[in-house]
Design goal:
There is one protein chain. The chain is an alpha+beta fold. About 25% of the residues lie in helices and about 25% in strands.
Length: about 200
């Protein structure tokens, strides 16, 4: 995890449905003693006012883990990482991780995606991964080197590439491309929630 960058001050909107997660890592773990730590993930879709792709065909930002990563090298995931004790709250952890891994600044939490995904590392440490759909500052890219509607800047020590994928892309990817099948299902759930909300808002 690189700590050479920091998130510039920005107003972040938080819906009431996730207010209970505006707590420190220490307080969260105290309230959930079965977990040893917390990871966070961020589902970032193409902005709704972007002309390509169409609003009925959103794309999700995925990042490919570096070949030198000890765990899951070369596999794809949403931006995210471990919450840290120095983060004021778990929600701050999301903003920090997104900025460190993509250079994008979180402006709004849309909703939680699922109820959490559990995994074990080191043989004994049980993690709970909390995933959120978020929106980011829409500084549209005019740089031809950027592939997509937003200017993503990767930390090469963690990720080697990024891609904006459709739900169809994700459904067609076989085993061995996403870090875990559980994470692929979370991504598909994010697409479902995103589309259902778009229908309600039309």
């Amino acid at each position: 995890m690189s700590h050479s960058t920091s998130v510039a001050p920005i107003q972040i909107l938080i819906p009431p449905s996730i207010n209970h997660l505006a707590v420190s890592l220490t307080d969260y773990l105290r309230a959930h003693p079965s977990y040893g730590s917390v990871a966070v993930g961020a589902c970032i879709f193409t902005p709704s006012n972007d002309e390509v792709p169409r609003p009925d065909s959103p794309r999700l930002l995925l990042v490919q883990r570096a070949a030198t990563e000890r765990g899951f090298p070369n596999l794809w995931e949403v931006p995210g990482g471990g919450a840290e004790g120095t983060d004021p709250t778990i929600l701050h952890s999301v903003a920090r991780e997104v900025f460190e891994e993509t250079g994008l600044k979180l402006t709004r939490f849309v909703c939680a995606v699922g109820d959490g995904c559990q995994f074990i590392t080191g043989g004994s440490c049980k993690w709970n991964k909390l995933t959120f759909e978020i929106e980011v500052q829409q500084n549209h890219s005019t740089d031809a080197s950027h592939d997509g509607p937003l200017p993503v800047t990767l930390d090469p020590t963690e990720h080697q590439a990024y891609k904006w994928v459709t739900e169809e892309d994700l459904s067609q990817w076989g085993p061995g491309k996403i870090v875990t099948e559980e994470q692929r299902q979370i991504m598909l759930l994010a697409f479902q929630q995103h589309k259902e909300r778009a229908v309600r808002n039309t």
